[in-house]
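dumping this here before i forget
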Amino acid sequence: MSRPGSPMDEPAGAEQLTQFEAQLAGMGPADMQALLNRLAGGFGGADALERTGPSRRREPRADVVTYRVRVELTGTTPPLWRRLELASDMRLDELHDVLQIAFGWTDSHLHRFSAGELYLCPFEVEEGEEGIPESEVRLDEVLADVDDELFYVYDFGDDWEHTLRLEAVLPRADGAPRAICSGGRRPGPPEDCGGVTGYELFSAATDPTRPDQSDARAEIARIYGPEVEPDGVAPTPFAIDEINKELAGLPPQSVGGLPEPLAELVRTLRDTGEQIRLRKLISDATLDQPTEIDADTAARMVRPYTWLLDRVGDEGITLTGAGYLPPVHVEAAAAELGLADEWIGKHNRESHTMPVLDLRESAQKMGLLRKHRGKLLLTTRGRRLRTDPVELWWHVAERTPPESRDRCETQAGMILLIGVAAGLTEDVNAIIARSLHAIGWMRGDGSPITGSDAGHAAWATRSMLRRLDALTGDSYRRDERPTPHGITFARAALRTWPATTNATPPCPRP
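structure:
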């Protein structure tokens, strides 16, 4: 699979320049203002609206309250606004989703928060812009006292600037929604309509109660051509019940509250809908709950590894000239671990018996075994964990997904683990395919990746989970499902992986 490169704009030729000059000559004040708005955003991205200055960020509140916030779209007359009731511990990436729903946006453009300093959207973070990732900032750090303000700009071409003003700080009831809309005025603007000027023009053209409707429709025909139908670019009606229905469907956890590898995975998804779906799945995985594993369950799950470690023993195993396990050990593994049903053939050559080969190689990658002078030997770690199934279980969890140089395989493995941790019984490969597509992966010919491609990318992680009896059923027949102890393992893996760089505190262990 491959990822597309960054698109490069081609320089305009003389013919395009002549056409542009002719268009300028025929523009009226309204369309000239709309063009200037778009050009201002195109050269630097809402520089006039960044509201930079000294940071107004404060320590977060010790308690969680409800903030009543009025959000007004700057420049609209009469004002276009929404009143929101928000959890004070909401992070700004979560607030972004709320604002998109409240105003009817489609999240088709970049955005940015500011309160003295800049709080960056995921794309800006990836591009190395200066500022603080929005997922690291809580709402109560930038709004603390009544009348405090926060600014939010959406679409650096049309430059939709929203001013968020704290109206009231209210007690918060147990189980209160993270966000609700309690009021508002005027429909939301359509995307790419030319900013506030274009919004007011299309609002007049689509409102039969306006005395200037005919003039507005004539102006649209003059600017955009008679083939443009104003009703097709109509503002989004303000429907408070629909808004609250969508708000109720948002995941309850911000990206900023996730272990960093998971937060990074979510941030790489370029499609907001897929990002929200993945966040919901992560929420269903309840990673904030302690993970406990008893010795008997751990011993059953890691038996393939303890069997192999015992087989190698203190003396080690002399390998074949090609570096494989001798036939006697391959046959024993296939028979005693029940691998014969998983693979066709005589099960006497490791290179032709993938379950055995994969077991041995995975043990080496996890630092349990090593090759030395033609022998397979226990490492110091392997010797220690050989008799401690609980610690071995955690050791394996902290290294799942398995090590890979292919980022797509690692991401596919993480998405599979999320599905298992959430207890999914539907076709997980389809979910992996959609998520990988949203990240930007594609087939070599440029077409979207399929469920089969996704299954191939997640193969190493799926093989590990099946070896541990974390997954049962047949993925090809779409009846694959996680076991209860498999769900526990996947949660532990997501909270502790990768073992070498994970900065998140380890899960409580029994």
